[in-house]
Design brief:
This protein is an alpha+beta fold. The chain is built from four helices and seven strands, in the order βααβββαβαββ. The relative contact order is 0.16.
Length: 169
């Protein structure tokens, strides 16, 4: 029997669970260049309030989250946003990431976003496959774009997804 996953708007009260999942992602070495998860105020300021979602199981526990960050403060890029998607250790491989990303695409289009952008480590095949399945295309590889927590240079694949509903005219 398939487990029930509910996608809901993220609330400030979800922050402890969201932050814990972010820390798990940092610890994998596959999710981000960040060395530590920020505090709520910094994270809140960096992400659009209208495109933050969590996945919950039947008990209400947070299984994962997705959010959009601003690509640029310039008005010309108002419809371009950066995707973050994180799934808890125990929930990976159960469709949580796909459910979150599908819901985020819908929410982003309702918010007038015409391009979603994602930067994914070259050695994270699961995340690359998920994004490709949901219509993201590979733009290129940013070689040795940054150093991870161990000091190792990392390559990041730049992906984007253009909306067929927003900005298509």
């Amino acid at each position: 029997m398939k487990s029930v996953i509910r996608i809901e708007p993220m609330r400030e009260g979800d922050w402890a669970a969201v932050r814990a999942i972010y820390v798990q992602g940092i610890e994998t070495g596959l999710a981000t260049f960040e060395h530590r998860a920020p505090e709520w105020r910094a994270w809140d300021a960096a992400h659009r309030p209208d495109c933050r979602l969590v996945a919950r199981d039947a008990s209400g526990a947070v299984l994962g989250w997705v959010a959009l960050g601003r690509y640029s403060s310039r008005d010309v890029y108002a419809g371009v946003a950066e995707v973050s998607v994180y799934v808890a250790d125990g929930a990976r491989g159960r469709g949580v990431g796909a459910a979150l990303l599908e819901a985020l695409i819908e929410a982003s289009e309702a918010a007038g976003i015409w391009t979603l952008q994602a930067g994914i480590f070259l050695d994270n095949p699961a995340s690359l496959a998920l994004h490709r399945r949901l219509g993201f295309r590979r733009v290129g590889v940013r070689e040795r774009i940054g150093r991870d927590v161990t000091g190792r240079w990392r390559d990041v694949v730049l992906l984007e997804r253009r909306s067929s509903k927003v900005g298509a005219e």
